[in-house]
Design goal:
4 helices; 4 strands
Length: 109
């Protein structure tokens, strides 16, 4: 399955050290290195006082700008990532695991 630009990166954040930013950063770097345009919730930044619902609203607005979704390890255990994947499927967007994408050598599948 090929990725269509821009690509949204989805994965678990809540309960992870540094909100799992290292995994998001690695995925964004690799995707961009292959020439893809990337949208990532971890790059939106943090705003003190926002709730989970506030963040997911921002994330879903970003997701709506994408054409494909790349999921990070552990996304299945994240209610936010589960919601993002559900919406992506409902919109007919390709959803590709980051590890599988890397194992295939990038966008040429």
């Amino acid at each position: 399955m090929s990725l269509k630009e821009p690509v949204y990166v989805s994965g678990p954040m809540t309960g992870y050290a540094d909100f799992n930013y290292p995994a998001f950063t690695e995925a964004c770097r690799a995707l961009r290195a292959s020439g893809l345009s990337v949208l990532s919730p971890h790059e939106v930044g943090e705003t003190p006082g926002l709730t989970w619902a506030d963040y997911i609203r921002k994330d879903l607005a970003l997701l709506a700008q994408a054409q494909s979704v790349v999921v990070l390890d552990g996304w299945e255990c994240s209610r936010g990532a589960q919601l993002e994947v559900h919406i992506a499927h409902a919109l007919g967007m390709p959803v590709v695991p980051f590890r599988g994408w890397v194992d295939r050598g990038g966008p040429n599948d």
